[in-house]
Amino acid sequence: MSAIADNLQAVQARISKAAAAVGRSPESIRLLAVSKTWPLSCVVDAAEAGQRAFGENYVQEGIDKIASISGRNLEWHFIGPLQSNKTKPVAEHFDWVHSIERLKIAERLSAQRPAYLPPLQVCVQVNVSGEASKSGCSPDEALALCRSVAALPGLQLRGLMAIPEPVDDPQAQHRPFRQLRQLCEQIRAAGLPLDTLSMGMSHDLEAAVAEGATIVRIGTAIFGERNYA
Ligand SMILES: *Cc1c(COP(=O)(O)O)cnc(C)c1O
User: Fold this and answer.
1) pTM above 0.85, yes or no
2) What is the sign of the dihedral through the CA atoms of 183, 146, 139 and 94?
């Protein structure tokens, strides 16, 4: 087995254990393999080990990989910051976008989504407490943004996404995830049928699963430490 196949198994085992600890079924959590900065050969290794969903942060890198690996029935998720001048290739080539933080980006993606494809599956990114980056709308803005996004014909609103500050203390890891789940429950109570919480990375997936994550986005624990040089 390749190192990537071993790592995928180990991550699945972490997900199953974290799910069991809170009485959740491991099937209710999808593993998104974050392949940013890694070459196509790593995606192929993971795909051959049965991994279907891949996450990319950079538009050109993602498009290049998608174009080079057609025919394997993979699912591609855009999870990075998205500028308005780069929405078109994302609308044309990705299946999901997790990083919707402004209506203007959502409107462009909706208008640019080709009619022959299913609606782009999207999450609104929220800047919950202790966010590592400045990305994401504020929790106060989330409901209004979700309502507007849900009305766009080229998109299907699925849920919320967050990237909390990396911290080691497990209790501190839970807080922002719990906040995102509660926000999701409020938005559902307001009538929007959200089914997705995209939260949890290599260092904090257990806390995210405990708080209700339905997609965990894992890079390092599958592919190794990234080298941005
Ligand atoms: C890079 C990245 C990940 C994966 O992080 P790891 O710590 O390598 O697991 C997840 N989500 C987003 C938005 C990322 O940019």
Assistant:
1) yes
2) positive
